[in-house]
Amino acid sequence: MTAATHPEFNQKTEGLKVAETFAGAIRGKTILVTGVNRNGIGFSTCHAFINQASQSPSMLIIAGRSPSKIQESIDALKGEFPKVDYRALQLNLSGQGSVRKAAAEVLSWNDVPTIDILVNNAAVMNIPERTLSEDGIEIQFATNHIGHFLFTCLIMPKLLEAAKGNPKGATRVINVTSGSPTVASMRWSDINHEKINKELPEAEQPPYHMHRLWGVADPEEKSYLPLEGYNQSKVANVLFGIGVNKRLYDKYGVFSTAVHPGVIRTELSRYAPPEALAAIEKMNESGMTSFKTLGAGAATTLVAATDPQLGMSKPESKDGKENHGAFMMDCQISDQARDLAVSSDEAEKLWKLSEDLVKEKFAW
To answer: Taking the model in full, what pTM does it have?
Structure first.
């Protein structure tokens, strides 16, 4: 894999433009998107997928925690695109019991034999206090990674069925990550954030400069940093995709990559403290970062899900760096992720840890 098809696509490209460009990769497909609410990039991703009747998927499965928000999204989409077949799926990724129930529901749908594109978009961020899930896992890691890992593996039979009829690499698992892989790596010795940060092995310590930018004082002396919990889960999103490719690309033609959608004003920041929100605004004003529209926030996901050139091979080493193609931003493959965030060895460690945490091993 060398590059995406359209080098002119960038941080300003809208998801609708991408969908129009790769209409053939969308038409007639069954697509599942997690974490969809009316004011988020999950919704704008769905909207781009079904933008024109001529390219609409045969079915759009909209997954989320809140049945009312799912229905609100379906009603809004159906108002514009009534011909698409919509399916609602209640999915609470923070609890493995809920994930297993939702996956079982998907597998029970005999009228939905295949899923061509899975977009793992849902996330929580900046949970103020260290919180464990009902399964005893730090809540951001539990929701953003473990929940998606388990859900994806459980519904894999429908992705594999789709792969039988698709060109190699056209059946896809897209993991929505963030900018975290460019600054962070996994905290293997302390996934539940119980140890003081400065006591961790050096390679596992948080990017202190980043936390100071976000308004945190003395991050070295703390054990739990809200943003670091998020960082861990978002690095895991990239490593999970690398694990999927190792197991499924050569054998079945299922392709996976992770995308940084950019900085967008959404409900994801609802738990952020005032100092963190102020820090984001300051970074935006200084030019360190810039806000994207919801449509532009969906664009890299659309490229990852539909650009046929990306699926022609799995990510490989390039210029001494592993898994070139495992991380994307601004509609292009990015080499900005830290080496540990795109490491095959780290990906295998994560796969084993994830299987241990869900108490199930997966092989296809």
So the answer is: 0.94
Q: What pLDDT was estimated at residue 140?
A: 97
CA angle 23, 45, 348 (to 5 degrees): 100
The helix/strand/coil state of 25 is: helix
The one-letter code for the residue type at 279 is A
- 242 CB contacts (<8 Å, ≥6 apart)? 256, 315, 323, 326, 342, 344, 347
Give the Cα separation of 142 and 148 in Å (integer): 9
| CA dist list (Å): 226 to 140, 212, 297 | 9, 12, 23
Query: Shortest CA distance to 122 belongs to which of 90, 87, 75, 154?
Result: 90
Contacts 24+ apart (CB under 8 A), 342-349: 342/181, 342/238, 342/239, 342/242, 342/315, 343/239, 344/242, 344/246, 346/185, 346/186, 346/239, 347/239, 347/240, 347/242, 347/243, 347/246, 347/323, 348/243, 348/246, 349/186, 349/188
> 13-58 pLDDT, tens per residue?
999 999 999 999 999 999 999 999 999 999 999 999 998 655 677 8
The per-residue pLDDT for 100 is: 98
